[in-house]
Amino acid sequence: MKKIHLIGLSLLSAVLLSLAWPSRGFAPIVFIAFVPLLFVQYYIGDPDTKNKKLSVFRISYLCFLLWNILTTWWVGNSTAIGGTAAIVLNSLFMATTFWLFHITRKKLFDNRSGMFLLIFFWMSWEYLHLNWDLNWPWLNLGHVFVSQNKWIQWYEFTGVPGGTIWVLLMNILAFKATKAALKLKENRKQFYIASGAFLALFIIPLAISLQMYSAYRETGTETEIVVVQPNVDPYNEQYELDPAKVVERNLSLAASAMTPNTDFILSPESAIQEEIWEERLQNSKSLKQVQDFVSQYPHVSYVIGASTFGVVPIGKETDFAARKFLSSDRYYFAYNTAFLIDSTNNYKHYHKSKLTPGVEMMPSWFFLRPLKNYAINLGGTFGTLKMDDENRVFTNAHAGVVAAPLICYESVYGEFVTGFVRNGANIIFVITNDGWWGNTPGHRQHFDFSVLRAIETRRSVARSANTGISAFIDQRGDIYQKTPYWAKAVIRQKLRTNDRLTFYVKHGDYLSRAAVFLAVVSFVAAMINIFRKRRKPAVS
Hints:
Layout: H1 3-20, H2 30-33, H3 35-45, H4 56-72, H5 80-109, H6 117-130, H7 155-158, H8 160-182, H9 188-215, E1 222-229, H10 243-255, E2 262-266, E3 272-277, H11 285-294, E4 301-311, E5 323-324, E6 331-341, E7 348-351, E8 394-396, E9 401-407, H12 414-422, E10 427-432, H13 441-457, E11 461-465, E12 471-473, E13 479-480, E14 489-496, H14 503-507, H15 510-535
Parallel strand pairs: 1-2, 2-4, 3-4, 9-10, 10-11
Antiparallel strand pairs: 1-14, 4-6, 5-6, 6-7, 8-9, 11-12, 12-13
């Protein structure tokens, strides 16, 4: 096979992955999307391949680069440099993962078997990408089914990693069936076995999920929630308007939809633009503005986003998130904050803890610390923010509702969200500002992640976006009152709470942790095998 053919197969995988990807893709294509790339690995790893200069890493990098470009190009709408870096680095990490799988398979199984190793290495990569400073798990394979919530009701047991396993197993079986079909006379039995297994692995999880969807019944207390979408242009309005006018826009929209039964009002991330110091919350005009509004409704809790600051305690100046005052030797922290404001006059708050790389967080590794001063400025508070030390929940005692206040990017992280649920949350709120990406797949894909969180935790979700998409999602992942992009909107819905803990909430990404262990063991075994072969004396 010529190199140009291998490159063509690699690019075909990229196109298939992109055609499967939400929000406009056709998800079932993902079940065969890796097959062309697996043929590339099979050919290059074959001991009989004559061209030993062929590189799995370089050829697979083309696949992953094109896939990243076709699906996450919109990142560049906010910053060309940041978007380019995200795409180039993510593709590099994916290619490295695929290369490690290739090396391990070749050294342990002489490339004759061991295709299952791809599952261990790819899941390990996805788990790492959820838990390090350069986190960008947007393209984790289990996310591909967000538009098919009826297919993945079993995510309450496995989370997104279960979807990744499903995708990779299906591709491995499709590869084996296709490989056997190319020499059908010699491999008829293998073809039938692989094809049958492929169909069974598609039908059985799908049938289980459809039955779970049909049988699921919501229980729990009803709570009425008003969601505000103020539609403030993040580029030309948000940091130009008087903060009081921005808050008033939110309050007037909320007032138009409230009833005597309303328990919560949600406004988006950064809806409060005033510079708020946490040592002097009572001095904030914007917080008082919301407080005065809520005082008219004693049973209502208002959840709203803001940028806040706090003086660094003496002795903590070396904290990576600490910033020095220009006119003083003291330091301060910056936060992306969610407030809960009710009639008690006691402001409750939570600081965002899963930060956006390159904007809200720079790598803290010692050799990358100089990059701390080059964070991308999107107009608000930027640079490394201080994170909360726990998954704080918001409580409306009158309604008996305990909410998880997720801020923007946090809704991408399944295991992280389970921490709020284990802390008592019986409903999920998402406040976000998706206007940075424009009317692109970016804000639609981000919205879709909330569907996964609803299924994994069996918690209803209320989502307030600055501009599209605000909505309500029930415990099965069904969507209600989805708002249009770039339009003022206010919506009201009754959602049910749930206190039951799903298997996934209790155990988190247990499948990924098992995969990490198996990947490490496999790679170490491959390295030992290489070492033994090199030390093996020549036969005289």
